[in-house]
Amino acid sequence: MRRRHFLTLSAATLGGVLVYSLDRKASLLSAQHKPVRIPLRFLTETEALIVAAAASRIFPSDDSGPGAREAGVAVFIDRQLAGSYGRDRFRYTQPPFEDAPDEFGYQGSATPRQIYREGLKGLRGFHHLSPTAQDEALRKIESSLFFSLLRQNTIEGMFCDPIHGGNAGMVGWQLVGFPGPRMSNLEEIEKYYGQAFRPKPLSLRQATGVKVRPSEDES
Amino acid sequence: MKTLPAVDAVIVGGGWAGLLMAKELGARTSLSIVVLERGPSRQPSDYSTDMDELDYAIRLRMMQDLSRETVTLRHDAARRAVPLRQHGAFLPGAGVGGSGEHWNAQVPRFLPDCFELLSKTTQKYGASALPEGHAVRDWGITYDELEPYYTRVDKLLGTSGQAGNIRGKRIGGGNIFEGWRSEGYPTPPTKVPYFAALFRDAAKSLGYHPYPAPSANISQAYTNPDGISRGGCTYCGFCARFGCMVGAKAQPSSLLLPIIQKRQNVSVRTGAWVRRILLDPAPKSAARGVSYVDAAGQEVFQPASLVFLASWTFNNTRLLLLSGIGEPYHPATGRGTLGSNLTHQVTVPSATAFFDRPLNRFMGAGSAGFLLSDYDRDDLDRSSLGFIRGGYFGARGYGFQPIGAFGVLPSSVKATWGSDWKKAAIFYYDRTATIGFAGEHLAYKTNLMDLDPVYKDALGDPLLRLTLDWRDNERKMVGFATPIAVDLARAMGARQINPFPGLGSYDATRYNSTHVQGGTIMGDSPAYSVVSPYLQHWQLPNLFILGGSTFPQNASANPTPTVLAFVYRTADAIVDRYLKHPGPLA
Question: From CA B408, how far away is CA B471, in angstroms rounded?
C-alpha cells in the first residue's frame, strides 16, 4: 500500500468568496486562514505541488481574477487520475498501437496516469522555480502530450462542478458568469438581449438538494 | 449455448427505432416481443441530477463504452485502418433510449427530392452532374408516400416549429423551401436565445428566409396521441450529451418506454450483447433468432419468428457481416451490397463570431434557434459552383457550459495559456457564438464498411472498419458556405470572425454529428440494396433493419424524424399485411 500523501493548501486561497469591485477587478475574500490538508489519491505530495505550480502558470491568479490555485485544480487532477479517466477505463486499449495522422486521435498506449507520471519527472523541482523560470520550463514542453493534458485538465478543474474537487467556491464559474445547473431560464431567455444576466451560481448539490456522486468516486 | 423460450419478435437495440417498433407492435398486437439492449436501463428520473458537464459532456458518461468495442478508420483502401480509441466525430449512445436520450432534439425533415436523388438529378442536369465515383441511389419511395408518417412523428414528439409549406401553400416565417406538410407543427416555436435573434434579424436584412428551428424540446405542455404528457422546455441549456431533467425533450425513455412497460407482451432486457443472427438450416431463407451474451456473461440463443435490427448504423451493418448474411460490398468489383454507401452529414462551424455584448449563452436548448435553407435546394445556379446539392445554416443557442466553451478565441489572440490567454478567454467567453452549416453527403463507391482484419472487440469479434473520406463535392460546398456565414456574422454585428478553415481529410477528432448512415441501404432492387423500402431484408423476409443504416445517402437534415417515419411505415405494413401473410412486402 502506498504511503498516504497530503496536499496542504491555504484555506485563504482555496475557494473563498469572489467579489468584484466597481472596476470589475475580481478579488477574493475569505475568513479562514488556517491551512487545510487534503489527502491525495494518486499523486505524491511533491508531484501534487508541481502540478499545482504548473496549473497556476497555465491559469494564473492575476489581475483578471483568481486562477488554478484558488480553484483547487491540483486536487481535481489528483482525483481524476485516481479514477476511471486516469486509468483509461473507457478507452479502446487493444494492441497493436500504430502511428497515425492527428485526425485519427490519440493512438498511444499510455494512460493519463502514465503520461502524468512520466511528464512530471521532467519537471523536477519546478515548484521551487521563479514564475519566469516556470514559464520557460513549460514553453519547452508546450507541444508534448503531457502539456496538452495538463492544460485541458486545468480548464476542467477551473470550471467543473465543485463535486469533482475543482472550481472551489465556484470561483471559475464566477469568472465567466456561468450560474451552474440552473433549472429554469424560461422567464429570462428573451428578456436580457444584449445585457449580462448573472444569477448567483449554485452547484449541482445546491441546485438539486441531492448528494450526487462524481464518477471518479465509483470503482 | 442455452436456448430461451421462443418469442414472436426479437428487437436488437433499445433506441428510438427499436423502442418505437416495440411500442407499435406491442400495443397493436398480442405478439410476444423482447427488446435486447446491451447498455444499462434508463428512465427519465435518472436525469434529475445529471447536469454535470464534466461527467456527462466531457467524460461522455452516456456514450458507448469504447473499451469493449469501437470502429477502425482509414481514409482509403490503400492504407491500414487504426481504431478510434476515444470518442470524437460521432457520439453513439448506450443504454435504453440510445442516442435519443442525449440528443439535441433537432427534427427537420428531409427535402422531397432527397428520396429520388439519382433520378431527379440525372433528369435535371444529366448523368455527368453527379461526381465521378458516386454511389448515389434512389430510395425506392417518394416523399409524398412518406409524408403521413412524418406527420405521425411530429405528433409523437410534439414538435415545436413554424410550418412553411402546408399542402403547397407557402407560409412566410416558416421554411418556404421545405417539402409540403399535411398539417402545421403540433406546438409553436421555442423561445429565441439572443444570438439566434441576432441571426434571424441579420438574415432577414440580407434577404434570406430564416425560420425557427424545428425542435422536439417542446415550447409548451403537450399530450401526444399515445396519451403521454410533458411540460415545456425551461431553457436550462443541458440537452446535448444529457438526459432532460424536466422531461421536455422527447426521449424514448419518456415517450415510448412507459407504454412498453405497461404491456405484458413486451419486455426489455438490458446488458444483452447480441453477437449473431442465426439462420434456418439450408436453404437459409429465414432468420431463426439471435444469440447474445447476457448480463451474467452467459451466451444464450433467443429464438424468434421475426427479427429486427435497430442497433444504429455501425452495429446493424456489423451484425450482418458477422452473421454472414448478404454479400459484403467490394469496391474494386462493385459486387455485393452489404456495407456500401457509408455517409456522414457534413457539419461545420462556418463562422465563429466574437461580439462586444454578452450573449447569456448558458441559457438555451438543443434546438432553440433559427435556421435558413435558402441554399438547401436544387435550383441554385450550378454552373459556377462546382458542387451539387446544398445545406442549411443555423444559429442555435444550445446552452453552453464552460469546460467545453472556454478558450475559443479570435485568431488575433496567439497565447494558448498564461495571463494574456486567460484574460482574453474570460472576456470572450460569453461573447462568442458559431453559425453552423449542415450539408448533404453524397454516397461514393469508395466510402464503405467491412470487418477489420486486425482489431477485435472484448468478445473477440472483429471490429467494423470504416473506409471514409471527404471528396471535392463536400469540400467545395463547405467552401461556398463559409463566406455566406461570415457575411451573416458581420451583419449580426460581430467584431471579429474566425471563418472555417476548410474541409481537409475526414477528421475523427472533431465532433461532426452522430448522423452516420448507410451500410444496409434500402432501394427498389436487391441488385444494389440490402432492404426494400419496407426495411425488409431482400433474402430473409422475416428480418427487418431499422435506422439510418438504411439511408442510401445523407441529406442535409438531421435523420431522426426520417428514421422514425420509416419505422411507423414498416410497423403498419407488418400489422396490416405481414402478420396475415408472412412474406415479401415490396
Answer: 28
Preceding omega of B283 cis (within 30 degrees of 0):
yes
B191 touches chain A (CB under 8 A): yes
Distance CA A141, CA A58 (A): 13
Work out whether strand B165-166 and strand B299-309 pair parallel, antiparallel, or are unpaired.
unpaired
DSSP state of B35: E
pLDDT at A16: 55
| B417 to A151: CB separation less than 8 angstroms, yes or no | yes
Q: Do you find a cis peptide bond into B212, omega within 30 degrees of 0?
A: no
Quickly tell me which residue has 423482447 as its cell: B34
Distances from the Cα of B192 to the Cα of A69, B51, B85, B259, angstroms: 38, 22, 38, 33
pLDDT value, residue A161: 97
Q: For chains A and B, count residue pairs whose Cβ atoms are closer than 8 Å.
A: 188
For the segment B311-327, what is each residue's pLDDT rounded down to a tens digit?
Answer: 999 999 999 999 999 99
Rounded to two decimals, what is the model's pTM? 0.96
d(CA A195, CA A35): 40
Please report where in the chains the cell 451573416 appears, as a residue: B488
Instruction: Please state the ipTM of this predicted complex.
Output: 0.96
Given a cut of 80, whether residue A22 has pLDDT beyond it is no
Output the CA torsion B185→B189→B190→B193 (10° steps): 150
Three cell numbers written together for B121? 438529378
Check B51 against A181: CB less than 8 A apart: yes
Please name the residue ranges forming H helices in B402-522: 402-405, 419-429, 472-491
> What value, to the nearest 5°, has the Cα angle with vertex A92 and ends B310 and B16?
20
Query: What is the distance between the alpha carbons of residues A41 and A95, in angstroms, rounded to a whole number?
Result: 29
Return d(Cα A64, Cα A183) in angstroms, integer: 29
**Contact criterion met (CB below 8 Å) for B274 and B36:** yes
Choose, from B134, B515, B537, B581, the residue flagged as catalytic: B515
Distance (Å, whole) CA B272 – CA B295: 6
Whole-number pLDDT of residue A33: 61
Q: Identify the bridge partners of residue B522 per DSSP, sorted by sequence position.
A: B531
Give yes or no for a contact between B183 and B165, defined as CB atoms under 8 angstroms apart.
Answer: no
Q: What are phi and psi of B468, to 5 degrees?
A: -155, 130
Nearest Cα of chain A lies from the Cα of B199 at a distance, in angstroms, of 13
Mean pLDDT of chain A: 91
Amino acid identity, position B261: Q
Helices (H), chain A: 45-58, 68-71, 73-82, 112-121, 131-140, 145-159, 171-176, 204-208
Q: What is the pLDDT of residue A21?
A: 45
For residue A13, give how far its alpha carbon lies from the nearest alpha carbon of chain B (Å): 18
Per-position DSSP letters for B2-63, written without gaps between them: EEPPPEEEEEE--SHHHHHHHHHHHHHS---EEEEESS----GGGGGG---IIIIIIS-TTB
Domains of chain B as residue ranges with CATH: 1-72+91-103+249-329+517-586 (3.50.50.60)
What are the average pLDDT values for consecutive 10-residue runs of chain B, which has 586 residues?
97 98 98 98 92 97 97 96 98 97 97 97 91 97 98 98 98 97 98 98 98 98 98 97 96 98 98 97 90 97 98 98 97 96 97 97 97 90 85 96 98 97 98 97 98 98 98 96 98 98 97 97 97 98 98 97 98 98 95
Type of residue numbered B30: S
Decide if pLDDT at A135 tops 50.
Answer: yes
Asked whether the beta carbons of B491 and B498 are under 8 A apart, the reply is no
